[in-house]
Amino acid sequence: MTERRFKRKSAGDLVRVGVITSPGGHTPGIWGEKMNPTGDFIRTTGMLMTHAWSIRPDFARGLQEKFQGTQAVDDPRDMIGHIDGVIIDDVTALSLYPLFARPFLEAGIPTFVNRPFATSLAKGREMVDTAAECGTALLTASTWEFSESVGDLRAKAADLPAIKGYVAHNSMSDYYTHGLHGVWYIHAVLSDEMQKGRGRVRGAAYHTPDWRTPGGFVVYEHEGSEGVFHGGLHLVSGADGNAYMRILGDNNGDAEGRIPSRAGHFMYNTWNSAQLVIQEMFETGQSPQSGEELMEKLTMFLLPFYSVLEREGNMVRREELEGWELPRPSPVLMKGDQPSDSAFKAPYSDAEIEAVEKKLG
Fold this sequence. Notes:
With 361 residues, this protein is of the alpha/beta class.
């Protein structure tokens, strides 16, 4: 068991957090405002962003100017010894995540890696193995995974004698940055089933005119207690529900749940619940998910991409992912001005990526 790193000495003590981020991350507009609120924003977490690093130093200095109490550093490793946890939030540099995570994992600092975790199984496995070797807590997650909807539907799924299949949908801008939320919503709901040996993904097919925009359908094939079962994920925009899933059971009934998109406590139910889980991991040194679960989530994300990019949307098997790597967000993946997400708005040059590899490698 990892020793608890955070020891509160007074009621006002906050968990000190370091971030690795960029304009394509969530720190400047969302997470930063929850940890170091400015203007009319309110604090909704017991964490404080104390240090920041970015591949582009001017961006880190901008965070220092915007968020009181935040110090920009010249090297991410300079944070070690001054923080209780680290958030890696630079999806534009996704291919570098193992390099970013390694020094913190080796130092025993609980590490949250923002979705989608890695560009390949090999790079995801590198982080999982390092965390296991060093006894350090590691987590990657969607904001959907710890919502009330997941807890309710996960319990209902566990009560079903058998799962015959499911239908689901997720609101997204593009598959790379937001389609993943629906994928990991499904995993979170079925996670207990996977631990029972019914639910592990065997393959996937992604039928879509263009993964860069809403519209399309992912078919998953799962191992089941009665052979295999299939599930379908509609990747849409503007539906009544940021995420929805109906699990098909036997003649005793089905189970369904959703994350509503209509007016309500959406931010509290998703973003804030995820941040509380991250804070708990930073305080206790215990991750809520195993390395095996993190790798299953990564597999579920990469399979549809492999299907659409390499196999014209046909069904592909999980074994085919070995040795394959998804390109990082960059012009090579863009068509016109799509995807429109911020992760693709200011891509790094190859020279910038190579400089970081040399610095941290």
